Amino acid sequence: MTATPHYPWRHGAPRTVFITGASSGIGRDMARRLAAEGVHIALFNRSGADEVLAELRAAARSPTQRFAAWRADVAQGGAIEAAVRQAVAELGTPDLAIHSAGVLHNGPLAQSTAHDFEHVIDINLKGSRHFAAAVLAHMQARSHLVFIASLAALTGNFGYTAYCASKFGVRGLAEALRFELRLQDIDVSLCCPGEIITPMVLQEKRHMHPISAAMKAFAGSRTLDASVPALLHGIARRRFEITDGPRPALTAFLSRHTPRLSRRIGDAIAVRALRHATKDHR
After folding, report:
1. Do residues 229 and 33 lie in contact, with contact meaning Cβ atoms separated by under 8 Å?
2. Domain of 90: which CATH number?
3. Could you say which of 70, 156, 207, 230 would form a disulfide bridge with 244 (CB–CB 3.0 to 4.6 Å)?
4. Which domain holds residue 155?
5. What is the reported pTM?
6. Is residue 64 part of a domain?
7. How far is 11 from 23, CA to CA, in rounded Å?
8. How far apart are CA 15 and CA 13, in angstroms?
9. From CA 66, how far away is CA 61, in angstroms rounded?
10. Span 57-81, mean pLDDT?
11. CA 227 to chain centre
């Protein structure tokens, strides 16, 4: 493994990486790119991963790299704990663990059920806790825990009450864990990308509320090829909060440093979108 790494790893490229939600989207793309860094990879998905494992073998830098997958639902603490324990026995302890599993729900609160809300919280927030607890039982000093959150961890959006609540929660979890784990020399990162065109997002767009779409357009959309390398660059540098481009970074800046202005911009976008939607239905 003598080829030059693609990313500026602060402590050298990781040896073993554990990734949840790698059956598609961000997790899958990260796994493929990390395979080219020469690492061993363990995948944790609710569904099978044979096709993903084949991709990783094709992208691998060395034939000695090992890849394996376990079926486990991150919403089930005992299941992910057992799967991680098996992966450690087979591949070794992770020095980079990435929690990418997540679900979306778009719809105003009054048009959503309690089950809709609980489902998002169970996977996005509780799943983050379960995976963190499972891997931290094995991780050692100088290792790295990464949560794939969203720009929705930093700012709200119309029709995303469950999703924003879950991602704001992940942000709080990451902030608190950062203090705890710094004392153990374990780094924490929180990735907050804007909208990335993944299969999950494309499915969501078919039913997205027009006001939600208009507000999301402010931060723009990016492809996996544009977004994931930016996220991995931040992960390699072990930055805590990572966005994936200028427009998401601007949105995050406005929300954090000028919240009143950010809300006014959002309100104006929502009013304009509602006006256009009303006209279209006349």
Report:
1. yes
2. 3.40.50.720
3. 230
4. 16-280
5. 0.94
6. yes
7. 28
8. 7
9. 11
10. 96
11. 12
